[in-house]
Amino acid sequence: MQITRRMIGATAALSLGLFPMLDAAPAQAVGCITGAAAGAVAGHYAHHHAILGAIGGCIAGHHLKVVQRRKAAAAAAAPKPPAPAPTPAPTPTPSPAQ
Length: 98
Description:
It is elongated and about 120 Å long. Helix 2 (32-45) runs antiparallel to helix 3. Helix content is 60%, strand content 0%. It has 3 helices and no strands. It is mainly alpha-helical and 98 residues long. It has a domain at 30-75. The termini are far apart.
């Protein structure tokens, strides 16, 4: 009897302690869905390995999307060259009167 009460108390304390870890975090699976779809189709035609193709496509698609985002962020953060100075317009010379 004593052991079951202790087990219930320990289980309750542990579950309350771990409850904040169950908070839903946003997924960072950019590029995975499209890569998985393409990989599944390719894997299906390559001797019926759609699951392996989907896994590989998800990994490759995610990697390519991350690289694309890094390049875009680097391009946005790169210093822009200064605009060229405007050249003065030539002054028109009057034509001789005839």
